[in-house]
Amino acid sequence: MSALTLVPHNLHRVAVDGRRMMFHIPTSGLFALDEVSGDILDLFDDLPSVTTDDVRRRFDGRHPADAVVVALEELITLDVVSDGRAAWPGRKPVKIENFPLSTIVLNTNTGCNLSCGYCYKEDLETPARGDKMSFETARQGVELLLAEGAQRGRFNIVFFGGEPLSNMALIREVVAYAEGRAAELSKQVDFTLTTNATLLDAALIDWFDDHRFGLTVSMDGPKAIHDRNRRTVGGKGTYDTVAAKVGLLLSRYRSRPVGARVTLTAGVTDVATIWDHLINELGFHEVGFSPVTSGEADPFKLNGDDLAELFANMKALAERYTDAAIAGRNIGFSNMHQLMTDLSEGMSKALPCGAGLGLLAVDTRGGLNLCHRFTGSDVPLFGTVAEGIAKDRLGQFLESRLDRAGETCDTCRIRNLCSGGCYHESYARYHDPHHPTYHYCDLMRDWVDYGIAAYARIRARNPAFFTDHLEPRRAMK
Ligand code: SF4
Ligand code: SF4
Fold it and tell me: Does the domain formed by 103-340+355-362 have CATH 3.20.20.70?
């Protein structure tokens, strides 16, 4: 036997109630370690390179020799221990030629009726001066979705802006058209949008409810936090208006749960207080946090100490999520819930998200962008709704992102969950959508490490949580 070494980027060890477990990174699978396997892994903590004599010395008289051999062979097969040969095939290079769309994002209007300080939109104007999408452009976008995703039975149309509610005429027309087309094809269509809520009224809420919209409200927390950045064009805080509209929305919306999306900026790291206000005082079903870590809006970026504090606070809230999950409750912390969903589904991502593959965003002129955050940017388009997807160019873009050879991501232990990070983060930070989001890898690894340990605890103590709280949520999408 040649000398054996551990392959640290392929495993993550966790202890739950004294039981040793291993999260196998290539498959995102969770294994209970028996005593022999656990002891073998411990041996590598003491010796970076292990010989046959080392194994004999450690285990003779402690474990039967055949049990040690079997356990070692299993660990080698899983590529957790290496005997010098490549046991686990890496991802093979793939040629991407098909783009089975499930989601199209329609940028209804570049205009917004608010003027939030941190807004990343490159093409933002006031609604009156905003560039509005025509129905014909939107119709072509829907037809592109139906044609490229022909094998799918279910589609999602996302309305985005600026503020999407500032072009309700278009949204109503698109919904009527898409529902008609879906019925003709015996398929299902879902609608989602994120709004600042200021333009909502009872009639509009009921209309969204009738069409089962998935609604998310952009809201940053209690008044003092929300009003720091979310202001009118005249500079006035919008909390009072938004909170009143949210009250109206939540009092009459029945078809789907309503979530809040919080943008976290420099100096705003107290996620527990924000979560408490939005969930327990206002009544949202779930809250998702989006930290600003890159982009032009420099004064708003979370950096250094702020970012570390934010992740520590996220972990503290995640601890509450975990305790509640063990007790059979979901406290509506979306970031943690998404991580638990990914782990539960054995997520192994070759690309960071569906942008460009299952999802494209249409700008107001009909240009095709990787996702909503690229509309109005200087990243070249990947075709138009009229001419179709520029498949060669989009394929090359995705293939080059798939190729991680020689990069830190190639051997990163969270590569199958992070996969190099969001293209837009990379574009905003490095002006290159291919560049991995190296500016917070350690924090991301720490967050995922925490998530794996929490996942193992919930699995061990209340496995029903995953069927009771994750699967119904998936079915609703
Ligand atoms: S961007 Fe960083 S954290 Fe993400 S996979 Fe690459 S090295 Fe790992
Ligand atoms: S590129 Fe980033 S912002 Fe766009 S869909 Fe992917 S993760 Fe989201």
Answer: yes
